[in-house]
Amino acid sequence: MDLKSRIAEAAERVLLTNGLAKTTTKEIAKAAGCSEGSLYNHFKSKEDLFLHVLRNQLKNLMAALTSLQSLAGTSPVRDNLKRVALAALGDFNASMSLICSIFSDPNILYRHREGFTERNEGPHRANEAVEAYLLKEKQLGRIGDRVDARAAADLLLGSCFQHAFQLNFLGREESLEEQAQFADRVLDLLSPGLE
User: Fold this and answer.
1) Is 22 helix (H, G, I), strand (E, B) or coil?
2) Nearest Cα to 23, choosing from 54, 49, 59?
3) Which InterPro entries does this entry report, sorted A to Z (predicted)?
């Protein structure tokens, strides 16, 4: 494993244990078995390292969203959205403590918000990707004209996020079958307009 990967893996362990506000680059370097200066050869700051870890935590959702546009006009809309929902449920559940740690310190939140703005990134981009997919399906005539694509995207991803938040708060784990059942319940609510 190369040093950058080792640092990222150590950062993930330390962040999940301590949270973002209480994690130091010194602790991460110690856990990675390298000098603190080595971190800065690969990452600009603790926040940059945190975002790298968070992106890795959300890799299934990112992959599902990336492939979503190419699925327009192919398999059923519901199946495509279920793929996104299942990826979101899994990734949100695994990364909830990291996501929530951004809010532990107003300065950290401000720096992350600035960084997201500079890179044209942020949590709203996932919703925009689902919205763009639904608009494409609407143009193809595969979903009704009355469907509000943004509201449907917000309902789908928001439901997944809230569900993952509750599971983390309650200390519950859910099987893949239970996740699929939850995704089906959400999609049942959206289905009348999507068929």
Assistant:
1) coil
2) 49
3) Homeodomain-like_sf (IPR009057), HTH-type_TetR-like_transc_reg (IPR050109), HTH_TetR (IPR001647)
CB 14 within 8 A of CB 52: no
C-alpha to C-alpha distance for 32 and 161, rounded to whole angstroms? 31
Six token digits for residue 23? 């994690």
> How far is Cα of residue 36 from the mean position of the Cα atoms in its chain?
28
Q: How far apart are CA 48 and CA 39, in angstroms?
A: 10
N- to C-terminal Cα distance for the chain?
47
**Model-level pTM?**
0.83
Degrees, nearest 5: CA angle 166-16-171: 30
Residue 162 to residue 33: CA distance in whole angstroms? 37
Residue with tokens 């968070």: 54
Tally of CA atoms within 13 A in the half-sphere of 161 that contains its CB? 14
CA-to-CA dists, residue 66 to 43, 62, 163, angstroms: 25, 6, 23
Give pLDDT tens digits for 124-133. Answer: 899 999 999 9
Q: In percent, how much of the chain has pLDDT > 70?
A: 98
Domains delineated in the chain = 1-54 (1.10.10.60), 58-194 (1.10.357.10)
